[in-house]
Amino acid sequence: MSVLQATVLALVQGLTEFLPISSSAHLILVSVFTPWEDQGLTFDVAVHLGTLMAVIWYFRRDLWEMVRDFLRSLTGKGHGPGSRLAWAVILGTIPVGLAGLTFRDVVADHMRDPLLIAGGLIVFGLLLGWADWRHRGGRSEKALTWVDILVIGCAQALALIPGVSRSGVTITAGLFMGLSREASARFSFLLSIPVIFLADALELRHLLAQPEPVQWGLITYATFLSGLTAYLCIHYFLKFIKTVGMQPFVAYRLLLGILLIWLFW
Q1: CA-CA distance, 240 to 243, in Å (whole number)?
Q2: Cα separations (Å) of 181 from 66, 224, 244, 264?
Q3: Among 105, 148, 157, 172, which is disulfide-ready with 99 (CB 3.0 to 4.6 Å)?
């Protein structure tokens, strides 16, 4: 792998992991529109590790409160806002975990078609636009109900389909349930932590069984670059949606979906 390829893929991963535009779709599209060979499992694990480190560092104070209150709840000292949010993340991860274990090979082998990606971009883009326009409320992520958690958690499982976008579909579900834009995004990002961790752990198990040589210098560079890009993306995305909202991302999804249909129909 060249430095240019590593740079492009790390930037794409860092920019798209937390935006509601589908990171998996963009990584697939890089391989479609360039002559580069598939980047390989090692690189995928590395750039996802970078985005995981970024979201953990950005939400470090929230995570500390969640862990502290969660441990207190286990010892019978009551539930605080942090423990309720921790339970919400745990329970919201179960549907995508079960779906990932059940359908991982089907998704990897049969759902990387550009036209399928286009359909996911357009359909779930329209749903995001409708939710942001008509259904968003003002509730915080710390006011989630069990119904909210179930709906958002089940919606997250749909993100296994390239083009849907994990952040996009969970933000959409949060908006439909009456959360604010920022609360929907924040909960979506917190939900990404166990998802990325479990996905990386699963891929690492396959990686250790492969005898491929590892370019450690390039891997370290890509991990750092994807992490830095993802951190900046989270920071500015949360500021952007407060005033502008989701409609620019909806427009981007529709245009990209139409472009893919035009190119590959």
Answers
A1: 6
A2: 21, 29, 10, 34
A3: 157
* Helix, strand and coil percent figures for the chain, each rounded to 5: 80, 0, 20
Burial of 5 (0-12, 13-18, 19+ CB in 10 A): middle
pLDDT digits (tens, 9 = 90+) for 186-234: 999 999 999 989 888 877 776 666 666 767 888 899 999 999 999 999 9
- The encoded tokens of residue 248 equal 């620019």
Angle (deg, nearest 10), helices 3-16 and 216-243 = 30
DSSP 134: I
Say how far apart CA 181 and CA 131 lie, in whole Å: 10
Residue identified by tokens 């500015």 is 236
The domain ranges of the chain are: 3-264
Question: 133 vs 100, 180, 188, CA distance in Å?
Answer: 31, 12, 19
What's the number of CA atoms in the CB half-sphere (13 Å) around residue 100?
A: 21
